[in-house]
């Protein structure tokens, strides 16, 4: 990678090849500030390119029907909030963000 983007979106494969079943494996991913270092993937592998997780799109349910819920970190308070239809609530602590429902991860370069 010659130039890293300001925002990095990672899509986790959650649906099997048959597209009729959902994969529910837990995929570990960095959740703390500046914890994801992509520097080794760049043209200059000695550089440090850090990203911080700021949102997660979770999918619950199956391929036949499901529900999406967003978890987002407030830019000032740094607290995580859950957006579930018309309800916004303070989400679980950072160590509870990794789950088998995680579908899309949103990172910002720090």
From TrEMBL:
Lineage top rank: taxon: Eukaryota
InterPro entries from the UniProt entry: Papain-like_cys_pep_sf (IPR038765), Peptidase_C19_UCH (IPR001394), Ub_carboxyl-term_hydrolase (IPR050185), USP (IPR028889), USP_CS (IPR018200)
Lineage: Eukaryota, Metazoa, Ecdysozoa, Arthropoda, Hexapoda
Residues in USP domain copies: 1-110
PROSITE patterns xref list: USP_2 (PS00973), USP_3 (PS50235)
Protein name from the UniProt record: ubiquitinyl hydrolase 1
GO molecular function terms noted in the UniProt entry: cysteine-type deubiquitinase activity
Catalytic activity as recorded in UniProt: Thiol-dependent hydrolysis of ester, thioester, amide, peptide and isopeptide bonds formed by the C-terminal Gly of ubiquitin (a 76-residue protein attached to proteins as an intracellular targeting signal)
EC number: 3.4.19.12
Transmembrane segments annotated in the record for this chain: none
Enzyme class, broadest EC rank: hydrolase
GO terms (BP aspect): protein deubiquitination
